[in-house]
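anyone seen this seq b4? input:
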Amino acid sequence: MGASAAAGLHVVVARPCASSPGRMFMSRTAFSRINLKGASQGLANSSSIFSIRSPCERYSSKYCRVVTRAMSGESEERTAYGLPIDLRGKRAFIAGVADDNGYGWAIAKALAAAGAEILVGTWVPALNIFETSLRRGKFDESRRLPNGSLMHIAKVYPLDAVYDSPEDVPEDVKTNKRYAGSSNWTVKEAAESVKNDFGSIDILVHSLANGPEVTKPLLETSRRGYLAAISASSYSFVSLLQHFLPIMNPGGATVSLTYIASERTIPGYGGGMSSAKAALESDTRVLAFEAGRRGQIRVNTISAGPLGSRAAKAIGFIEKMIDYSYSNAPLQKELLADEVGNTAAFLVSPLASAVTGSVVYVDNGLNTMGLAIDSRSLATQN
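predicted toks r here
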């Protein structure tokens, strides 16, 4: 894992403390993206711009000393203010990373930027291509973290979360050439492999879904297709938590990814996928109670807006959904995968220590809308 002067993501809005002899230190992170020199000069010379008082003004000097010790990774002479998303010493297993353009990858990067050790579980048929691309440097540019280093993936595990144990794997899958050369890829085996290699984890991320009949209307969806969507997209999370919970350290956290189709009708998002997302959200609440009581583990899910990832393109109209979101969401801007990644980093961090059982929307506010403002009907009325 690449070292940095001050590891971790920081949410910073501050000015130098008058009582502090040291300069203010601000990390250049995915959150701020502010040039260090420009920021320090701007903040030092524009006190009238900000009405927010510094922590030293609002709190006791004792508080400031605690923050300094917790965040100053460069030297004792530098003082940092703000809320740290510090995951140093934490280990994360992200299930469902098979390329560098989806939410799973973005979450892995955000956790790595915050200092976490990264393990990933990759769908077995995509494993060879993913590992080869990593090895040949094809992902190097997208691996780059805010401090300039490259995200390090400690280990890639083969995984097919549709199968809980080897006994569940049908013969035709065992003999399928796409699975040839891989072993220990059921959920139970993956958890055992992680335990043998690393002992424990702190963070579990579920970033996988599949609906073989997703392009079919629900009225045309077969029982097999419907149950397959539920199995791959929602029960897979139950299975992952069931098998990884014994090796999760108390105080750990899990995050999954859902979609607004769980509660709103999205024509074209079929094959049982809307039902699978609804089940995932319901399971999030139940598992928050069960895992919280059993292992002090927090369970949350992110309802992310549309992203043109490789997996999302399977539904066939993702670009139209992106355009719709841009036209109708309160925040009229492109939704970035990094924004979902940053939210996940917050949810698994100590900053969210009292947040569990929640559906957190990261969609530029589209979920709040009850009317499409680009509707032709509205245009006709106007």
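Residues 1-6, 11-77 have pLDDT under 50 and may be disordered. The radius of gyration is 22 Å. kinda curious what u guys think
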